[in-house]
Amino acid sequence: MKNYWLVKSEPASYSWDDLVAEGKTSWTGVRNFTARNNLRSMHLGDEVLFYHSVTDKAVVGIAKVVRAIPPRKQAIGVRSIWRRSNSCTTPSPWTRSKREDR
């Protein structure tokens, strides 16, 4: 079953036009716990409403998830400063998801 998501970005940092020009992007550097969990829940084919915050305050485009990416292994690797002794089998708190414009 397809899900629908809302992602927001400040146009000065990364705008809808940037996504259209690039064709695809990875949503990285998300530290908010709820947002991170939502990114983890995205699946191939899910629809994404792209929201401009701060200036426009509007949905400016619709994208789709083209690949759900698993946690980065280096985030829980042996040399990671964030690694706990029991973290080798736990997922990384930093996840990524790819989207492209339709």
Notable characteristics:
single chain; 102 residues; alpha+beta; ph1033 like fold; 5-stranded mixed sheet; 2 helices; 16% helix; 32% strand; globular
Secondary structure elements and their pairing?
Layout: E1 4-9, H1 16-22, E2 24-26, H2 33-41, E3 47-52, E4 58-69, E5 96-101
Parallel strand pairs: 1-3
Antiparallel strand pairs: 2-5, 3-4, 4-5
How would you state the average pLDDT, rounded? 79
Determine the N-to-C terminus distance: 19 Å
The H-and-E topology, N to C, reads as: EHEHEEE
CATH architecture designation: Roll
| Fold-level CATH name | ph1033 like fold
- Outline the low-pLDDT stretches: none
Profile the largest sheet: 5 strands, mixed
Strand content: 25-35%
Number of helices: 2
Question: What is the approximate shape?
Answer: globular
Return the structural class: alpha+beta
Radius of gyration: 15 Å
How are strands sequenced across the largest beta sheet? Answer: 1-3-4-5-2
What is the CATH superfamily classification? ph1033 like domains
Number of domains: 1
In percent, how helical is the residue content? 10-25%
CATH class: Alpha Beta
- Using DSSP, what is the number of strands? 5
